[in-house]
């Protein structure tokens, strides 16, 4: 009997020694992975581990073009804020060319930036680059550009609300009846949303008719819209033929203003969207520009840079879309000149 107990004891001791060896081996493997040796990671994705410092972050910035005040302003403000936080901006201007923007973003991805801020770029057209950014685990912040399921964070003015504000102003000023012309653009979400908002408002005002529409040129929108409006005024020469212009953005509206004022047509007013300083100047002089809905450009840039840094360090935003408020500005409440 005692021999059976001795054998059982020896078997138990042997089993315990195997468990101890296995545990030691596991600990050594774990220590190896955390001690500087290369651990297996998914190709193209950064190895998790050491926390990133703001001063070591490279933030890619790409803008659709600098053809108007908003594009230029938010591009430069975004670069300034990245530098202010201690990061390094890798900034590219796509000169109004969608194909170049796609190529520019792929260049940023190849340069292994820690996050990408895309200013006024159509994420649907840019989806091939979006997919490459996802593969390399690079956060993508879309600003004034619209939504795509692959975008990590969209930061925008609410362009539907902006369009509705100026459209409602237009309808009220016309007293619910009149003829208008529209300057529109289909290439990016903000201008599409504003046009949709105009139509939503006008459904309630069936006696307001859009008699002419024009898709603005980019770049070169100012001369393009001025020349188009000159043609429209020749076609509708009498007071009351046209009473208002709805412009997708203030710069295009200013082209119409130049033609209207040169022709002495004080019976026509213009509304737009952006809060362009040129529109403000005209409004202060009680010119043809009557109202705009103004972006909080600095607020949008601040939010984009804040979250680019946070997401580069692994933090996830609480929502995928953040909207920044944009007030209605008229000749009655236009800000004073700086």
Structure description:
Residues 25-53 are annotated as: Disordered. Residues 1-19 form the signal peptide. Residues 59-316 form the Periplasmic binding protein domain. Belongs to the bacterial solute-binding protein 2 family. Keywords: Signal. This protein has helices spanning 2-34, 69-84, 98-110, 127-135, 159-174, 189-202, 221-235, 250-262, 277-284, 297-312, and strands at residues 58-63, 88-93, 115-119, 140-143, 153-157, 178-184, 208-215, 244-247, 269-274, 289-294, 321-324, 328-330. The chain is built from 10 helices and 12 strands. It has 338 residues and is of the alpha/beta class. Helix 2 (69-84) packs across helix 10. The termini are far apart. The model is unreliable at 1-50 (pLDDT under 50). The radius of gyration is 29 Å and the shape is elongated. The strands form 2 sheets. It has a 6-stranded parallel beta sheet with strand order 2-1-3-4-5-11, with helices on both faces. It has a 6-stranded mixed beta sheet with strand order 7-6-8-9-10-12, with helices on both faces. Strand 8, helix 8 (250-262) and strand 9 (269-274) form a beta-alpha-beta unit. The chain folds into 2 domains: 54-157 and 297-324, Rossmann fold, CATH 3.40.50; 159-295, Response regulator (Rossmann fold). It is 45% helix and 19% strand.
């Amino acid at each position: 009997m005692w021999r059976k107990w001795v054998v059982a004891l020896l078997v138990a001791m042997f089993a315990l020694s195997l468990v101890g060896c296995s545990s030691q081996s596991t600990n050594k493997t774990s220590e190896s992975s955390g001690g500087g040796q290369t651990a297996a990671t998914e190709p193209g994705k950064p190895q998790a581990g050491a926390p990133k410092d703001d001063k070591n972050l490279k933030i890619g910035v790409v803008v659709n073009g600098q053809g108007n005040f908003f594009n230029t302003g938010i591009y430069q403000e975004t670069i300034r804020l990245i530098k202010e936080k201690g990061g390094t901006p890798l900034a590219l201007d796509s000169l109004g060319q969608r194909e170049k923007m796609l190529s520019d973003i792929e260049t940023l991805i190849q340069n292994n930036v820690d996050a990408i801020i895309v200013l006024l770029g159509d994420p649907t057209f840019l989806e091939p680059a979006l997919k490459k950014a996802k593969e390399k685990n690079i956060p993508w912040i879309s600003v004034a550009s619209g939504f795509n399921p692959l975008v990590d964070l969209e930061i925008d003015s609410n362009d539907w609300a902006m369009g509705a504000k100026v459209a409602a102003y237009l309808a009220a000023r016309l007293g619910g009846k009149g003829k208008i012309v529209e300057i529109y653009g289909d290439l990016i979400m903000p201008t599409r949303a504003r046009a949709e908002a105009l139509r939503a408002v006008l459904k309630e005002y069936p006696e307001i008719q859009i008699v002419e529409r024009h898709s603005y040129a980019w770049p070169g929108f100012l001369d393009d819209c001025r020349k188009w409006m000159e043609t429209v005024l020749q076609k509708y020469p009498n007071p009351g033929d046209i009473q208002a212009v709805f412009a997708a953005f203030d710069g295009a509206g200013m082209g119409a203003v130049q033609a209207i004022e040169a022709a002495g047509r004080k019976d026509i007013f213009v509304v737009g969207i952006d809060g362009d300083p040129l529109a403000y100047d005209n409004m202060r002089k009680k010119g043809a520009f009557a109202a705009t809905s103004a972006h909080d450009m600095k607020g949008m840039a601040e939010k984009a840079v804040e979250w680019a840094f946070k997401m580069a360090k692994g933090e996830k935003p609480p929502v995928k879309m953040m909207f920044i408020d944009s007030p209605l500005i008229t000749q009655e409440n236009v800000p004073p000149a700086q």
